[in-house]
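Progress narrative, Year 2. Work on PhoD-like phosphatase metallophosphatase domain-containing protein from Kocuria dechangensis advanced from sequence curation to structure prediction during this period.
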Amino acid sequence: MDRLRIGVVSCANWQAGWFSSYRHLAQREDLDLVLHLGDYLYEYAPGEYQARDVVVRPHDPPVELTVLDHYRRRHAQYKTDPDLQTLHAAVTFVVTWDDHESADDAWAGGAGNHTEGAEGSWTARRAAAQQAYAEWMPVRWEPGGALYRRLAFGSLASLSMLDLRSYRSAQATGPVSAQIDDPDRTLTGDEQMSWLLEGLTTAEAQWKLVGNPVMIAPVRFPSTLSTGEIGALQELMGATRSTACPTTSTSGTATPPTAPGSWTTCATTGSGTRCSSPATSTPPGPATCPPTR
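Result:
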């Protein structure tokens, strides 16, 4: 195998518009697979969480998803989209979930869009979402098991698909918060992080790819950001502190550093720059790793 061409998609909100991007991917006829990185569907009721305050096409059922029948019906509705049908028929999907497959801002013990008691228990709601996901999505997975997994494409590439919702800590209360520096915070959980680093270190594939539904990147932003703009950064607030430096595989190809938590948030004000680490007054530079051979 000497070529792998992947289409990457995510965040498809039925009531916010049409799925023409799926149609364009299906028309290419040169893709080996489609990588869906989560938010395959959205759990909100009609009129909630749509783009530009316009409902292009209402969600079914006409309620926020909280129980198994709700999640099954929403999956069924999304599968009626003709462009999504065409892409599924044309190309293999490799999928993982983000938060909206269950509830917005989901974490191990709850979700920002879940009210314990009034909307049942989070344990029951998450189980319902996972059951519907297993029934409707192209993945060999049993509800309650580990969704993260690794796929090999000969000696050309290995693809590590992550689950960044089931094991993560709750999001911090703000973009500059002492919570971010808590060493016990995690995005992946210890077991998944160890699995990921082991795979990146030992895989002999030329390319080592990571399918991550949450952004992994350094972040700096000014204090003039609006509430909405800061909200767009909140998904980064559950990061783990783990880092990894490049190693050289037996194929002679350097493994890129993978560090979901090696980022620092910084806010610039008139008195200077404040970063998430209380020990620094200016943003730290990039992680220093030994050169690869």
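Residues 148-293 form one domain. The longest helix spans residues 122-136.
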